[in-house]
Amino acid sequence: MKNYDVAIIGAGAGGLNASFEAINLGKKVVLIDKFKPGGECTWSGCIPSKALIQIAKEVKTAQSFAPISIDSKQIMKKVRALIETAHQGESVDVLNEAGIDYVNGYATFKDANTLHVEGLEIKADKIIIATGSSAAVPPIKGLNHVNYLTNSSIFLQEELPKEIIILGGGAIGVELSQAMQRLGVQVQLVEMEETILYREEQEMACMLQTTLEQEGINFYTSHKAVEVKEDDTGITVVIEQDGNKKTITANAILLASGRKPNVEGLNLEEIGVTYHSRGIEVNEFYETSIPNIYAVGDVVGPYLFSHTGGLQGKQAIQNAFADKKEGINFQHVAWCTFTDPELARTGMTEKQAREQYDNRIQVYTLDYSDLDRAIVDEKTKGKAKVICDEKGLILGASILGERACEMLCELQILKSHNIPFYSLQKAIHPYPGYSELLLMMSHEAYNNQ
Q1: CA-CA distance, 203 to 209, in Å (whole number)?
Q2: Which of 336, 356, 382, 403 is the most exposed place for a label (fewest CB within 10 A)?
Q3: Rounded to 5 degrees, what angle do the CA atoms 220, 226, 232 make?
Q4: HSE of 225, CA atoms in CB hemisphere, 13 A
């Protein structure tokens, strides 16, 4: 038996950040994962998807100058090489050098302080569960008899299919649909809601959908997949809208219609850790129903992002060993869908703000077509919106356009530190830059104070 101050199950963003935070506190740490360190983000999420997106973007740029051939075998090989390069910063050697013991295997609870991992018994004062999430398989007739793809398997393919049906218009489905379409795959996307990315500012989601349609993606919004079949000719999906059915066909199908927490096999029921279909129940300090066991990241939610999981991992470790525990204020959480153009968001949409504040809000918008830099770069598709309260403090913001993610960070700083939006007028912005869009918008806010 090996004894530790803390044992961490899952080497994704939550587990890695928790491990390094524990080392910083001088604790003896063991990190356990069934695969190599990195988790979903490194192997089948953020890293490979952004690699594929960037390659597809470069291909589209090249095609604007001359016809080029696309070799998806070489592209997928390149994506996997980039994954391995990114992984070097979190390899087992790096972990060991930091003082973290790494154990490769499946962990199962024996009791609240003891884990079994591939025949090894590990005892720890504190245990952190950071097992993440995986693609949910919707209850569609025939789907279990089909060789479907998920984000975990798509990047393992030797080459991209000629045609693909994607179920789900969230970030994963939309990002991969654009990347694959640009790389020569004919994409059909099925989404039950009226638009893709339905939780975002609807105007911007519709603008993005129009852009993707112009690139050749076929969307079936307000449609539900009700049956899937596969034979020697490919895959057929029956979709339904208002009682009317139609069939669509392709060589492959990708599931991107939701996530489920990875709780199977941990033996949580036997030791009394409470969980449900959306994940493990925790309090504001990330403690489970067993006081010395904590849970963070996708297996807890509510946000399934690497950056939120990492933050939760650090905070859980601090809470586990500190005299005074603290929670995390997710009022200022931000995220981005990395399409081209990007769609970045922090805080409320305009609809949410009006529901909570009635008309006691100020809304500022500006199109990318009004920005000199966007004009010369020919990146005029896009729009920014900032929603403020009566004092000028930011309630929410959305940016659809070139470099939206980086531009949102400027607003995120203002929002997180309760600095009025109009204060941007006091900061010199270089010309011609994309951030000038925010400066121009804040001028109106400055005049309204």
Answers
A1: 10
A2: 356
A3: 90
A4: 30
Could you check whether 2-133+260-328 and 341-448 share the same CATH topology? Answer: no
2-133+260-328, superfamily in CATH?
FAD/NAD(P)-binding domain (3.50.50.60)
Does the predicted model carry a pTM greater than 0.85? Answer: yes
Alpha-helical segments (H) within 64-129: 72-87, 92-98
User: How many CB atoms sit inside 10 A of residue 329's CB?
Assistant: 8
8 Å CB contact between 315 and 13 = no
Give the pairing of strands 362-367 and 383-388.
antiparallel
Q: Which CATH architecture has domain 143-259?
A: 3-Layer(bba) Sandwich (3.50)
Read off the pLDDT of residues 141-168 as tens digits, 9 standing for 90 and up: 999 999 999 999 999 999 999 999 999 9
pLDDT at 184 over 90: yes
* Extended strands (E) in 15-119: 29-33, 100-104, 107-111, 114-117
**Number of neighbours of residue 112 by Cβ within 10 angstroms:** 15
Look at residue 449 and tell me whether its pLDDT is greater than 90: no
- Please, what's the largest Cα pairwise distance for the chain? 68
Homologous superfamily in CATH for domain 341-448: FAD/NAD-linked reductase, C-terminal dimerisation domain (3.30.390.30)
Q: How does strand 114-117 pair with strand 279-280? A: unpaired
Extents of the domains making up the chain: 2-133+260-328, 143-259, 341-448
- Tokens found for residue 276: 């449900």
